[in-house]
Amino acid sequence: MNVQDLLGPAGVKPEGRPWFSVTAQGDETGGGKGSATVRIYDVIGGWFGTNAADLVAELDALDVDQIDVHVNSPGGAVWDGTAIFNALRQHDARIVVTVDGLAASAASVIAMAGDEIVMAEGSQMMIHRASGGVFGSAELMRETAAVLDKIDQNIAGIYSRRAGGDAAGWLAAMDAETWYNADEAVDAGLADRTDHDMPADVEAVAQFDLSMFNYRGRQDAPAPSMLGVLAQGFPVSAESGKVKEEEKLMKEFLIALQERLGVDAEASVEEILAALDEALAERAEPSVPEGVVMVDATKYAELEAQAQAGVEAQAKSDAERREGIVSKAVEEGRIAPANRDMWVDMLAKDEPGTVALIGSLAPNAAVPVVPIGNAEDAEQDADAKIYNRVGWGSDAEGK
Predict the structure, then answer these.
(1) Roughly what angle, to the nearest 10 degrees, separates helices 78-90 and 52-61?
(2) What are the residues whose beta carbons fall under 8 Å from the beta carbon of 286, sequence distance 6 or more?
(3) Nearest Cα to 107, choosing from 115, 97, 116?
(4) Residue 234 pLDDT
(5) Which of helix, strand or coil describes residue 242?
(6) Which of 17, 58, 107, 286 has its Cβ near the most Cβ atoms within 10 Å?
(7) Which residue has the higher pLDDT, 286 or 180?
């Protein structure tokens, strides 16, 4: 953004393009104040470029509802560009900026003043750091460097407020001298849409002397850096209509990523990537606590299945054992067959205690299942049973 460099050695304005023009049109319907068209088709500021003071004066005199600003400029003096940007932003009219051919350097700053920014078919936009020169002492050079740093911060803030993202990401893109074609500018948030029905001023772009830049247009420059785009919080998408929605999702993703990685909200791209690399490295080589053995997932599933089978087998064995205890107690007459299920449940709840209880019951106590005594005793028992049923003889006769 140095006017002398941008003018070129001869400092000659290319012929055939006005320095700038302001044309007002009345409202034919009579319901409004009308509109105005402003064309900035030259270097910004300096001896041979668009004079900011003259243009600002004409802008202030406009009493219109809308100002259509058409830009085709390689940039120029940063102070003049900033003055024009602020004059447009402070105007009451709606500002629609259309990049007809090129909006580079300071001209890209002016473009950010639009309430709507349109990229014509084949148009380009370029952002970079401010530059300047000084002759004098080391202290004067340090002061100049400090001023340039502040200018860069201010410009990065303008891009950030317009397109989103943080100033650090935009400074990285500026440092790389980033060129955008029409779609890329929209995808980055620097413009709202492209107008494919509007032909670009390609011939005018070709006439500018771009030798002072690192690249002579988007065709010679690399694509906008993916890292720069991520730092700003913007997606790289060929469908510009989805940019705003995707931009919001990307910002939310970056915030969540920073929180999970534990990095500061103002962390640079390098710091975020370093934290991500560290997290991935830890995941690739997980630390295993002492006493813990790592097992392959397939092997673990196999062991888990075997363990489940063992549990089921043990349960079956326990059930069969309890059934055997109850069956034996029934056979011995310790418990009645009708109470079989009750005793099985008791064994399931407290096997040792229930086994002890069954053992305390006398055989044949619940149901006689074996003869008691000798044959004579058996006959006496039979007589006793008869007696119990009918009573003694005399009693029977009495009854």
Answers:
(1) 10
(2) none
(3) 97
(4) 47
(5) helix
(6) 107
(7) 180
Q: pTM of whole model > 0.70?
A: no
Query: Cα dist. 120→36, 100, 191, 310 in Å?
Result: 19, 5, 11, 74
Instruction: Please report, for residues 272, 273, 284, 285, the alpha-carbon distance to residue 278 in angstroms, rounded to integers and kept in the order given.
Output: 10, 9, 10, 11
- Determine the average pLDDT of the residues in 244-255: 65
Tell me which H or E stretch contains 125: strand 124-127
Identify which of 120, 112, 123 has the alpha carbon closest to the alpha carbon of residue 208. 123
In the block, tokens 């080589």 appear at 285
Question: Residue 354 has which token pair?
Answer: 């229930």
Token pair 């447009």 is at which residue? 88
pLDDT band at 397 (very low <50, low <70, confident <90, very high): very low
**Nearest residue to 188 (alpha-carbon basis) of 199, 202, 173:** 173
Residue linked to tokens 């030259």: 42
> Could you read off the pLDDT of 132-146 as tens digits, one per residue?
777 888 888 888 788
- Residue 326 vs residues 11, 178, 214, 350: alpha-carbon distances, Å: 113, 88, 96, 14
pLDDT of residue 299 exceeding 80: yes
Res 215 pLDDT > 60: yes
